[in-house]
Amino acid sequence: MSDFDEFDRFVRSRSANLARTAFLLTADYQLAEDVVQEALTKLAERWPAVARHGDPEPYVRRVIYTKAIDGWRWRRRRPEVLRPDGVPWPESSDRKDDAEAIARRIVLRNALARLTPRQRAVLVLRFYEDRTEAQTADLLGCSVNTVKSQTRHALERLRTLAPELADTFGRPTQEAS
Amino acid sequence: MTNPLHETLDDLVTDVPRHVVPADISAITWRAGRRRRIGKRIAGSVAALAVAALAVATLPVLDELRSAPPADSNPSPGVTSYPERIGHQWWVRELPDRPGPVAGVINLYREHPRPYVPSGWLAVSPRGVLWQIPGDAHHEPTISPNGRFLGYLRGGDAPYYLHDLVTGEVLEFEDISGNWSENEEAFTYLIYDQSPSFWSPNGSRVLLPGSRWDDGGNDIVRRPLLGTDGSLTEVPHDYGSVGFAAGWAADDELAWVQPVHLDLDDQESAITGFTVSITDVSGTLLRTINLDVNADEASTRFNQWGAAMSPDGTQLLLTTESDWSDRRVFVYSLEDATVIDSAEAVDLASVCPVGWTSDGRPTVPIQLWDDDVATTAVLDGGDVRPVVRIEPGLGSYCAIWAGDALAGEARGGIFGMANAWPAWWWKEITLVVALTVGTTLLMWRRRTIRQVLS
Looking at the predicted complex, does its ipTM rise above 0.95? Predict the structure, then answer.
């Protein structure tokens, strides 16, 4: 199997998951698209060395976290084939949810968008990817105390921005291991 | 164990649209990644090439521009090599305090040497690095046989400096001046310009061309004899009796040479021979040797640059000329007064001293005025063979060498004695090529990426 075939197999199996993480970290679909493409491009650039050390996913995720926290806003020009002509944004979801569910998602997304990049990153790693405080600190390159304080600030901010979702922003059930 | 926030976030991302991860994202990102990989390799190669070019061009010079370490356990460190080629330098700084033994000195002139207008002297390291010798341009500096001591007149006035290039110590002789117009009572000795000096075989003393102020009009002048121990003594010189200084026959014996003209009353008549007088340093005549010149090799002129004793004191190198096109070189044995070697030297530079290597080979300066080419050549079996070449256009026609340098290793690099202009300008050519290639590659890379992204 060639390097490209291995790379392609990895991307097909993990890209959706990576996109979801990127969206949560950036709170913006277009930024998420750019972050994912940049991370996969970096992976492609270093594929022989990264693949030689095992699972490439930790490397890609670390790039995504870094780009998201850096507040990376550069948008590369993309080939026309990627421009989603007529593809609606999720606001017009295909799911047959009630209005309340839709409203909750909109409120949550807007609230996330108003957090700092590092606060979003901490929340995503702790509560979406279910990582410990130590693992989160290692991935973000900061101390455990910083993770704790950022988590606390992020949840307080969400409670302020989205009081109707306050029951969602309770204390985590997993603590640092 | 899950938490409400996890479920809420999970619900939020369920509808992430497809365009965030298009179907062909692996192909697109793979191509982009490969372009970056290639681009970084190109940029890295260009950077390495530029660094290598800069290193090749500058490191040898930078290495020589560092001051030499202080004298170590070797009590008499001397020069052991010489540069085969002396070329231009991007910048020439003043002679450092302790550059180490030098191979020689070369002069500079600003205008065409007809008439010759000296503008300065440069010290030459064994690898060809040049340093400006501070001081007067009209008075020849002098270098000891081992290249360790450099003697020069600091300015037109005193003092005369004897600089130990290994330790940095400078002996100042304040009684020596180079200016006729200065107050005679302020100095004791006057140094003649454009005249050679002569070092004793053991390199401990140097006989300077000059006289006392109050010798004017006397038949015998008193020449300053400097010692590397700081001593200053005098050597009587009866020019009318013994002629020009020719060097040392031994550490305590001086040699003088007087041409013998066919018509004793006509100094322009053909030279039929030479009288060599050997004296001690107090001027007492020890012996004379008469040298004959064949009639078909006779010239009419002989000057103060045209004589030099061999390091072992047994041979005498002489040059004569009749006009610009008739110059001859002779090597005489003083043991039996016979000619050991001779040659025609049409392009001999007559205002530059002849000399010897420490291993007993005579050297002469060669100057091709029309081509602005200067070389130092060795007389070898009737041939005049260049051993050092000075870059055309550098503005030099005279090189004076430490005997030990020319007896040592020749440092010429890959170009040796080549005189084509690329051999002199290879550093600049290398830099231009490296910069051009680098710029071209970077522009190609940028254009390629633009084409892919557009």
Answer: no
